[in-house]
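User: Show me an example of a complex going from sequences to structure tokens.

Assistant: Sure. Here are the input components:
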Amino acid sequence: MQKDESAELNLIPQLTLDCAIFGFHDNSLKILLLKWKGTEYWSLPGGVIHQVESLDSAASRVLKERTGLDEIFLRQFHTFGKVARYDGNEIKKKLGHLIDPSLWYERAISVGYYALVDFEAVFPNPDTLSEECRWWDLAEVPELLFDHLDILDKALHALRLELSFQPIGLNLLPEKFTMPEMMRLYESILGKKIDPRNFQKKILKSGIAIRLDEVKKGVAHKSPFLYKFDPERYEEVLKEGGLFFI
Amino acid sequence: MQKDESAELNLIPQLTLDCAIFGFHDNSLKILLLKWKGTEYWSLPGGVIHQVESLDSAASRVLKERTGLDEIFLRQFHTFGKVARYDGNEIKKKLGHLIDPSLWYERAISVGYYALVDFEAVFPNPDTLSEECRWWDLAEVPELLFDHLDILDKALHALRLELSFQPIGLNLLPEKFTMPEMMRLYESILGKKIDPRNFQKKILKSGIAIRLDEVKKGVAHKSPFLYKFDPERYEEVLKEGGLFFI
């Protein structure tokens, strides 16, 4: 975050936000990353906070800029406030051709948000300092700049906790999905195998998903039934909490 | 937060922290509040963040100043970033004799922490702007300044979530306690009745509490057994997670 920019643009000084944007595709959890111009370095998308916007609005704005999406499922999960979140020397070495480290604040505190988005609906869009914005498989995430690996870890941890208190999937699965697809979403977030029979029993008992009179075609073996979410019941369970999977 | 103070004292501008400090006494959950000098207005304890200290260190410092305690169970739970968290006119009217609202930033973002402390060990200590620091029963909390009622609500919500993932009590109960005492701690945090037999079964199954060969004397009816925490097992369960009470 640059000092002059902060005063000129009427930003809150020394405060930024970073976003872990998760999507689900090909049975695995993906994260949206930016590649900084003229480098091989990647980071999470982030942004500044204007004096006239709330933290939540700033996060929605950044999400919209990077994905094209409005009305995203977005949660603040932690504020990162260590003294040395980034190292002036490291910035100079890696990003010196892009930014002048002497114009950066020695310290910035960053509010972390995570988002769950519909992979198919996203048009990844780099920001002014980056040349590429694309999905990475969580298992293949490259080295990240600053403390962004720590931010990603904590986002994933928060998402896992959230999973045990509320239904997840409405923003991540296609409109019609099979039970194995939904289970693999849960498995990819939790990073562990789930017992399929218990999973199906819990989901059906909760009433959040309704079985359709349709099967998924073109898959090997037996064609699995398709399900869709019951939006009203989903909303109710979201309010009540209490789907314990971990 | 005052503008001149921020520059002179080398503080992070427009960023503060607020602490919901919980204690347990007489079977009810208490919260530590400050009464502002020459007013009838109360707020949560809070503080500034120095350029050279992390957010967590700043929170520990404030906790130490208000309670006299080190090594407190302390959790960051949410950052409050609405544009109008406080109203200049309200400050002028209510606190104009204490602070000059024109020297305050129009906006500050506050990082919320909650703490669980040993009620008996705390020596409540007002800050420079307050004349009293004392415990309030949660059911009797007065009107609070700024958005502090919202902060308290969210702290309590976070504490309730935490309760279902990890054991709580080591910082809140006396060294030796009865099962009904521990249950009332849980009930007072959750704000609802718990089935005593299920509660005792879950606690004993988890192994976090050990029954002593002692009973509590001076209580009506049958003298209940005393328990103490098994610190090693407590620590293990803390790491594993998974005591579901809500």
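The lines above are the inputs; the final block is the predicted structure for all two components together. Chain B has seven helices and ten strands.
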